[in-house]
Design goal:
The structure holds two protein chains of two kinds. By secondary structure, chain A is an all-beta fold. Chain A is built from no helices and twelve strands. In chain A, the strands form three sheets. In chain A, strands 2, 5, 6, 10, 11 and 12 form a six-stranded mixed β-sheet that branches. In chain A, strands 3-9-8-7 form a four-stranded antiparallel β-sheet, with no helix packed on it. In chain A, strands 1-4 form a two-stranded antiparallel sheet. In chain A, a hairpin with a 2-residue loop joins strand 7 and strand 8. Classes of the chains: A mainly beta, B mainly beta. At the A-B interface, strand 5, strand 6, strand 10 and strand 11 of A face strand 4, strand 5, strand 9, strand 10 and strand 11 of B.
């Protein structure tokens, strides 16, 4: 089965706090991509990062960082020193390797609210 | 500018009517997708396509139909058979990566969405 689980439905923190969004995935494939997307109130999904299953290096981009651990099938996202503009719904997604057409499977999302 | 264009942004449908949502991309992407999003929920895959004249059902295809006559276009028709069509519909496209004889969708780029309401 191919599945992405984001157990945190909603998170609310005060500005400048650090916050981690959890993502756990299931796939039998050894080759796959993982993604994180941001959905602001406007509705359009914004791509944040792609991670190849063969690359377990953590990545940092400004205040954003991602921790990929194949041993626990997790791909967590941390925002450091959060800001009000970070308020959005965040989705984790999985794209497994298939012999036929590809598809991208999304988690249910985590709504992040940053309070001033 | 390259991107994905969905139209209309808002759509109202009377019960029993079929409506078609437009999705056009000029990114030269092979794969295209339609997702449905209900309030407070995640994205559920309706249909996807990796090549012209070919498409596959996603998890919630019942009551929907698609066509892929051109690489750039992937319109979605919401038929009268769809019992609860009110939702936010998102179209996306991606490059199709090849690895070990398999295909993988790379990061998808999304349109701005169409909000469909049944009146």
């Amino acid at each position: 089965a191919q599945k992405v689980t984001q157990a945190q439905t909603e998170i609310s923190v005060v500005e400048k706090e650090d916050v981690t969004l959890d993502c756990v995935y299931e796939t039998r494939d050894t080759t796959y991509y993982l993604f994180w997307y941001k959905q602001p109130p406007s509705g359009e999904l914004v791509f944040l990062i792609r991670r190849n299953s063969f690359d377990e290096q953590n990545e940092i981009s400004g205040r954003y960082s991602w921790n990929f651990q194949k041993s626990t099938s997790s791909f967590n996202f941390t925002i450091t020193a959060s800001q009000v503009v970070d308020s959005a719904v965040y989705f984790c997604a999985l794209s497994p390797r298939t012999s036929s057409a590809s598809k991208i499977i999304f988690g249910s999302g985590t709504r992040l609210s940053i309070r001033p | 500018d390259g991107g994905i264009t969905q139209s209309p942004k808002y759509l109202f449908r009377k019960e029993g009517q079929n409506v078609t949502l437009s999705c056009e991309q000029n990114l030269n992407h092979d794969a295209m997708y339609w997702y449905r999003q209900d309030p407070g929920q995640g994205l559920r895959l309706i249909y996807y396509s990796q090549i012209v004249n070919d498409f596959q059902k996603g998890d919630i295809a019942e009551g929907y139909s698609v066509s892929r006559e051109k690489k750039e276009s992937f319109p979605l028709t919401v038929t009268s058979a769809q019992k609860n069509p009110t939702a936010f519909y998102l179209c996306a496209s991606s490059i199709l990566g090849q690895r070990d004889r398999g295909k993988m969708g790379t990061e998808a780029f999304f349109g701005q969405g169409t909000r469909l309401t049944v009146v």
